[in-house]
């Protein structure tokens, strides 16, 4: 289970970091894409910082509540991105990257909870 956790988590972190790092560099295609879906271009930098913080949260041992927030944030980010593209008429084949990301989030989350069972109150 530990190997599966690190595979899912490693791929998820790689995906989120690639997305975050590219958001820090000016990109006319990215600006056009954001305009097309109706979001301000500057929101990409904020999302990039949050993705980096979420990746750190998943890597640092302990802090289970913050890990939950990171998983929730990644889920909201990916669902929101998929919805934004589907809402403007992008075919489902155009949002496969977000759906793969969701599978990575769910896989990592499931494995994390198998490795670290929650204590009942």
UniProtKB/TrEMBL annotation:
The keyword Transmembrane applies. It comes from the Bacteria. Its main location: membrane. The keyword Transcription does not apply. GO terms for cellular component: membrane. InterPro entries: DoxX, UCP030066. It is found in: Membrane. It is a multi-pass membrane protein. Keywords: Membrane, Transmembrane, Transmembrane helix. The chain crosses the membrane at residues 43-62, 69-88, 94-112. This is DoxX-like protein. It comes from Mucilaginibacter auburnensis.
């Amino acid at each position: 289970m530990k190997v599966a956790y690190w595979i899912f988590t490693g791929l998820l972190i790689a995906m989120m970091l690639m997305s975050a790092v590219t958001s820090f560099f000016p990109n006319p295609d990215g600006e056009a894409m954001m305009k097309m879906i109706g979001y301000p271009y500057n929101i990409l930098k904020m999302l990039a910082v949050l993705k980096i913080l979420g990746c750190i949260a998943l890597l640092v041992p302990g802090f289970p509540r913050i890990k939950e927030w990171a998983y929730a944030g990644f889920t909201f980010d990916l669902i929101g991105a998929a919805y934004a593209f589907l809402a403007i008429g992008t075919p489902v084949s155009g949002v496969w990257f977000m759906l793969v990301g969701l599978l990575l989030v769910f896989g990592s989350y499931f494995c994390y909870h198998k490795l670290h069972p929650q204590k009942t109150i």
